[in-house]
Amino acid sequence: MMREWKHDCNITIKEEPYINNLSRFTVYQNDSLLGSFYPLHIDEMAFLIEELDKGACPVCEGWEEKMKDKCEWRKGDNNPFLETW
User: Fold this and answer.
1) Cα–Cα distance measured from residue 82 to residue 57, given in angstroms and rounded to the nearest whole number
2) Cα dist. 4→15, 61, 74, 76, 77 in Å?
3) pLDDT tens digits for 4-50?
4) Where are the domains of the chain?
5) 3-class secondary structure per residue, 3-65
6) Are 12 and 28 in contact (CB under 8 A)?
7) Is the pLDDT assigned to residue 78 strictly greater than 70?
8) Which residue in 51, 47, 43, 40 sits closest to 18, CA to CA?
9) Are 27 and 59 in contact (CB under 8 A)?
10) Is the CB of residue 64 less than 8 Å from the CB of residue 84?
């Protein structure tokens, strides 16, 4: 079942099929596409879902670089988590 998370800040994240058992997470502001997150493996995908279920917003919480052309979110101090924006 693909999920969707909506925030009061007009951000919507949609879980979409990607490859194998992984999902990608596409981020919209109103109806404008901002970008997508591509987890590298199931554990990272589960962590992302857990954060979204807790109400995390990738835009409000700064999951994007200042240049807004790439997103990096690190799980721990040195583990690259997501890196496509």
Assistant:
1) 14
2) 6, 18, 22, 25, 28
3) 999 998 889 999 999 889 999 988 888 888 778 888 889 989 988 99
4) 4-82
5) CEEECCCCEEEEEEECCCCCEEEEEEECCEEEEEECCCCHHHHHHHHHHHHCCCCCCCCCCCC
6) yes
7) no
8) 40
9) yes
10) no
Residue 11 phi/psi, 5° resolution?
Answer: -100, 135
| CA dist., res. 61 & res. 43, Å (int) | 21
CA–CA separation, 42 and 40 (whole Å) = 7
Q: What pTM was estimated for this model as a whole? A: 0.73
* Contact assessment for residue 18 and residue 36, using Cβ atoms and an 8 Å cutoff: no
Q: Torsions phi, psi of 12, nearest 5?
A: -125, 135
* Across 49-64, average pLDDT: 85
Encoded tokens for 30: 């109103």
Beta-carbon contacts of 51 under 8 Å, excluding residues fewer than 6 positions away, are: none
